[in-house]
TrEMBL record, chains A, B:
Lineage: Eukaryota, Viridiplantae, Streptophyta, Embryophyta, Tracheophyta
InterPro entries, per database record: Acid_phosphat_B-like, APS1/VSP, HAD-like_sf, HAD_sf
Protein species of origin: Escallonia rubra
Cross-referenced Pfam families: Acid_phosphat_B
PANTHER family (UniProt xref): ACID PHOSPHATASE-LIKE PROTEIN
Similarity comment text for this entry: Belongs to the APS1/VSP family.
Signal peptide: 1-21
Protein name: Acid phosphatase
Keywords of this entry: Glycoprotein, Signal
Length: 249, 249
């Protein structure tokens, strides 16, 4: 297997609703032209799939359960090519431009909330294995997010991590974050027993409310799902990272 | 001038803040290759500009004042080619899919709120003139929006129009809407004297609140600006139409 095939084979498309705790992603094998071996994405599919991506990334689509069949190759190309990296680069640039307008408190009371999967870490870049990547704790950083994370720390912003993963995954999650280059966050929230069965939007809003109740101002929030960003106790500014692979309510 | 050049020349890039009342758009002349005459959009510009569009359409960018210089040809291609039509088609499809899940009240108390410029009408399709298109009242319909508008009416949804245009433009606005094929809306809100100077988000939220206070449930809202969709008294579902041309706070 070449590296690209590895990446493609690794990903497991997960359709998710309430208590999705981690993303195991598998994208389908690419279709190749029988003569040239090139990927075949028809022009009309490309046009439609770009519009589908507009639809889901703006949240116009609302809940969605699977990548349209005609867009599977398009999505594979998107995440394994330059575009996913480029889009997340621009998100990090927008986030940095915003926080530089904030007069950050010297008492550490200005906060930023990060989701983890497909926000700080992205197993899309992990060409390691087919299964159990969370146990292996080797999902790499999304490069632009790691850069922005460190820039926030230099500015004195207090960082909270808020993930839909379960409490029992705490050790592996910490290990993975450190492996990927993250350190010195203020607190890592995972779903505890009382959070089970809650919609991500509710669970995450409650945790943000807790952060605010402790006297922090949540300046920004970064997530690949709208459920990371909406609800109540929302950040002053929210930053949507790309994710055309799965949806979490 | 050929039709494409007409369209391109027509558009005037308007940078807008608080009391923007209509969109006069002008995109720059395209750069052409001196030998082939083809448009020249470099691959790295294309990659960057797609990411820039992700950034502004998700509202990650927040307020922005101009199309990046390197993206002017990209945006011209986007709006004058298939992609703008395709994206707005998919928005209309998302909107229809949602309203079909609603058990629409037989008393006409379920409402939908539409913005006008670049939502119901789009002067991008108007190859008529350089100036004063609003006075001419001949901006065409955005085709997918007109189709969805009629589908809503068949379903018994009550339609409100809510525009940042000023009250003095009422007659021209009505004339233009009728010319483009729209009819039988419940009410058309324009900015009156007491609305001057308000941010669009505030002005539009106040009008939605008024609609709700009259006993309507605002099921959906369609607009090309986030300021059409956010604030208070927001619709149950909001639908963001594409607009990489200008931003209204």
């Amino acid at each position: 297997m070449n590296p690209t095939q590895y990446v493609v084979a690794l990903l497991t498309l997960s359709l998710t609703t309430t208590s999705f705790s981690q993303s195991i992603i598998q994208l389908p094998t690419r279709h190749r032209h029988p003569l040239t071996g090139n990927r075949r994405i028809r022009a009309d599919d490309s046009l439609y799939c770009a519009s589908w991506r507009f639809s889901i990334e703006t949240n116009n689509a609302g809940a969605w359960s699977s990548i349209p069949a005609r867009c599977q190759d398009y999505v594979t190309d998107y995440v394994t090519g330059d575009r996913y990296l480029s889009d997340s680069d621009v998100v990090a640039g927008d986030s940095l431009a915003f926080i530089k307008t904030v007069n950050v408190s010297t008492e550490g009371k200005d906060a930023w909330v990060f989701d983890i999967d497909e926000t700080l870490l992205s197993e899309i870049f992990n060409s390691n294995t087919y299964n159990e990547w969370v146990d292996l704790a080797e999902a790499p950083a999304l490069p632009a997010s790691l850069r922005f994370y460190k820039e926030l720390q230099e500015l004195g912003v207090t960082i909270f991590l808020l993930t839909g993963r379960d409490e029992f995954q705490r050790n592996d999650t910490v290990k993975n974050l450190v492996y990927a280059g993250y350190s010195n966050w203020e607190r890592l929230f995972l779903r505890g027993p009382s959070d089970e069965g809650k919609l991500a939007t509710v669970y995450k809003s409650e945790k943000r409310m807790q952060i605010e109740d402790e006297g922090y101002t949540i300046q920004g929030s970064s997530g690949d799902q709208w459920s990371d960003l909406q609800g109540f106790a929302v950040a002053k500014r929210s930053f949507k990272l790309p994710n055309p692979m799965y949806y979490i309510a």
